[in-house]
Write a structure and sequence with these properties.
The complex is a heterotrimer. The longest helix of chain A has 25 residues, at about 205-230. Chain A has helices at about 40-50, 55-75, 80-95, 105-125, 140, 155-175, 180-190, 195-200, 205-230, and strands at about 5-10, 15-20, 25-30. By secondary structure, chain A is mostly helical. Chain B has helices at about 1-15, 25-35, 310-315, and strands spanning about 40-50, 50-60, 70-75, 85, 90-95, 100-105, 130-140, 140-150, 155-165, 170-175, 180-190, 210-215, 230, 235-245, 250-260, 265-270, 280-285, 290-295, 300-305, 320. Chain B has a 12-stranded mixed beta sheet, covered by helices on one side. In chain B, strand 17 and strand 18 (about 290-295) form a beta hairpin. The N and C termini of chain B lie far apart (about 65 Å). The chains are: A mainly alpha, B mainly beta, C mainly alpha. Chains in contact: A-B, A-C, B-C. Chains B and C meet through strand 2, strand 3, strand 4, strand 5 and strand 6 of B and helix 5 and helix 6 of C.
Chain lengths: ~230, ~325, ~150
């Protein structure tokens, strides 16, 4: 097997020699390297821990992506219980194959490919034809956003519950102390990083972190009783 | 007279050679499959060279898919320093609290009791004769004694007590022709598992805190074979070659592994360092025989729990 | 813990903080629950659709039954940009020697004369050779059992 040896590395250009163990011929490959996003770096760390047997780390990845995967699969499969089975199977397959993940792509890109293959296999096994997801390319997966036009399983009960949750969260957010509210909204509504918020608010990053957490904690306290009543499913 | 004939016939049946039965090797096939495909947990005693240890083993066979391996084994040492082994189909990881580190290597030729048989037990037919012995109880279960007798002087005797119900080996003794026992392993209790829960397959030691040492062959080293064996022993095939560079000396050392399916011999070929005298001769260390030879500037050593004639044959067969 | 979880949710957690967060084994479910709440809050604030079935507990119950993966132990030690170098075998022999003292009990003293062959002493055989043999060809607990010297 050939081994890659780093000859020199800069932030912009990455030179790698491909050394053949039989005849020592060298092939230089120039590749551009984009800086890794914080999300991808954190996911990579979680994957590494999962590869080392830390199931909790994998559990965080499950929590992060189960909903997105659910929505992705729902573009191919209609029945909600089937979607849930496929999502669960996909994560189990991802866990079993976690050592095959090399970090060449983002974790969720790899996970989504597994999800799509699992869904396709499921449809084929039922004699159904997989839908237009055949044409999904990698870029589309990486840019997959939570689609707002997806069919959702709404009943009068779930609609009422959603309304209650929405009202509770909004009321709780509005009644936050000003400094907490400001940090929280800069993060949640405008998507600013902690560093950006710290500059905008003129306070240390640690303070930003604390304020955002305290805001969430205060809202979550009011939200919990609602969620417990519904058994987290609606 | 008639009674004597009948008794002789019955005695012949008790320890009958292979040819009297239809496909008797099937029991070995079943034993090989059972040790791989069954899920079980038990404790067995393992003895070699006078030392006995109690070992707990948990083994499960899990349905495989395109992503995962399908066989999981966990071994805990119950006596002495804590030691643990986790093995799946591809890797073996050894934990030892004594050194506070973790050794990891690819799973190749490790066939640990009770999974002692090769993947294809049929290869044993050419070099061993199968005989059935009595039935005995082991670990509270009925078992059939099966003996593999070597067809030549180059192998040991293997005695198995195979579970009547599942064919899994419950006990094993390896001996030479003079009934000297090299090693034996025997379950004291065994239970078969029916759950698909594999959560037990995890390290006891906090592997996050350990240094993990990978044991592997250096693939950048040339595997150019400059040697050959002028006489190979029947049944022994080369199953592995490991080449390593000895650090600090820039000496390339080769280890060739030969096996007939049950017995293993390692043949080491390495240059003799300038300031070292080569070793020539034979020695037994525990149940392991070693034959050493000096040839064309190289130290040749063959090692194995096999008769002296075997290791001697291997060390003397190398030429280049 | 929850402040770290909040930072994790925002992808703003530091590496050592993530280690610390995950080091508390019994809190895995708590971390997931916190993230669920934060996600709900975020969806509301951003005006996203709330219809969701949270499968994470069910998925993790299934994952808990899965065996620990071994193959990535070493891969997990390497960073993305770090080149792995082949491990040297011989220095590890010392570790093996400490781990496993292999069958060094002799039957009749330290050496045995066989036929007319010269007799070697036990000390003439490099320990790494014995270790290398057994680690490559384990058929019994000899590989893993410490025995008397």
């Amino acid at each position: 097997m050939n081994s890659l040896k780093v000859v020199s590395k800069s932030t912009e250009v990455y030179n790698a020699s491909n050394v053949n163990s039989d005849n020592s011929e060298e092939v230089k490959i120039n590749m551009e390297v984009r800086p890794i996003s914080p999300e991808r770096a954190i996911d990579q760390k979680l994957v590494e821990k999962a590869q080392k047997g830390d199931k909790q780390a994998f559990g965080i990845l499950v929590e992060k992506y189960q909903l997105k995967l659910n929505r992705l699969i729902s573009r191919m499969v209609r029945d909600q219980s089937e979607i849930e089975d496929i999502v669960q199977d996909s994560f189990i397959k991802a866990y079993r194959a976690i050592n095959n993940f090399r970090g060449d792509s983002a974790f969720y890109t790899w996970l989504y490919r597994i999800g799509i293959n699992t869904a396709k296999n499921h449809l084929v096994s039922l004699g159904r034809r997989p839908k237009a997801m055949d044409a999904v390319d990698i870029e589309e997966i990486e840019n997959f956003q939570d689609a707002q036009d997806l069919r959702s399983v709404e009943t009068p009960e779930t609609t009422m519950m959603n309304n209650q949750i929405t009202a509770t969260v909004n009321n709780a957010a509005e009644s936050l102390p000003d400094e907490l509210k400001q940090a929280f909204k800069l993060r949640e509504m405008d998507g600013h990083s902690y560093e950006e918020i710290s500059e905008m608010m003129g306070c240390p990053i640690g303070t930003v972190r604390s304020r955002i957490f305290r805001a969430r904690d205060a809202i979550a306290e009011k939200l919990k009783p609602l969620i417990e009543v519904t058994n987290k499913r609606w | 007279m008639t009674v004597k004939i009948i008794i002789s016939f019955l005695l012949l049946l008790i320890l009958k050679p292979v040819s009297a039965l239809d496909n008797p090797w099937e029991i070995i096939n079943k034993a090989a499959e059972a040790s791989k495909k069954l899920s079980y947990k038990g404790i067995f005693h393992s003895q070699h060279s006078g030392d006995i240890k109690s070992i707990e083993i948990t083994h499960a066979f899990h349905g495989s898919d395109e992503y995962g391996s399908d066989e999981y084994t966990r071994i805990n040492m119950l006596d002495g320093d804590f030691g643990e082994v986790l093995a799946d189909a591809k890797n073996v990881v050894v934990y030892h609290s004594h050194k506070n580190d973790v050794i990891m290597q690819k799973r190749k030729n490790q066939h640990l009791f009770p999974a002692i048989f090769p993947v294809n037990p049929q290869i044993l037919k050419d070099n061993y004769e199968l005989s059935f012995g009595n039935k005995e109880r082991v670990a509270g279960r009925n078992s059939q004694i099966v003996v593999l007798r070597p067809l030549d002087k180059y192998r040991n005797f293997y005695h198995f007590w195979l579970d009547e119900e599942t064919s899994i080996p419950l006990k094993m003794i390896v001996s030479d022709g003079d009934n000297n026992i090299f090693e034996q392993s025997s379950f004291t209790n065994i239970a078969f598992l029916h759950s698909s829960n594999l959560s037990w397959f995890k390290p006891s030691i906090d592997n996050k805190k350990q240094d993990i040492i990978e044991k592997k062959s250096d693939k950048s080293v040339s595997h150019n074979k400059f040697w050959k064996l002028k006489n190979t022993l029947p049944g022994f095939k080369e199953v592995d070659q490991i080449s390593q560079r000895i650090p600090g000396l820039n000496i390339l050392s080769h280890q060739l592994v030969y096996s007939d399916g049950l017995a293993y011999v390692s043949l080491f070929i390495r240059p003799v360092a300038k300031d070292k005298r080569p070793k020539v001769g034979e020695v037994r260390i525990g149940s392991t025989n070693i034959s050493a030879r000096y040839y064309n500037g190289y130290q040749i050593m063959s090692v194995g729990s096999v008769p002296f004639s075997t290791v001697k044959h291997f060390s003397e067969s190398v030429e280049f | 813990m929850n402040e770290k979880t909040s930072s994790l949710f925002d992808n703003e957690i530091q590496s050592n903080e993530l280690d610390s967060l995950l080091s508390k084994k019994e809190r895995g479910a708590d971390i997931r629950e916190a993230i669920q709440h934060y996600q709900t809050i975020s969806d509301v604030i951003q005006g996203k659709q709330l219809s969701r079935n949270n499968l994470s507990n069910k998925i993790m119950a299934a994952i808990d039954k899965e065996p620990t993966q071994l193959g990535g132990f070493l891969a997990a030690k390497k960073s993305l940009s770090q080149q792995s170098s082949p491990s040297e075998y011989w220095p590890m022999a010392a570790s093996f020697a400490a781990l496993f003292v292999i069958g060094l009990t002799v039957f009749n003293g330290d050496s045995i004369k066989v036929g007319n062959s010269p007799v070697l002493a036990k000390g003439d055989i490099p320990e790494d050779i014995i270790i290398a043999h057994h680690s490559s060809t384990s058929t019994n607990m000899k590989y893993f059992i410490k025995t008397k010297d």
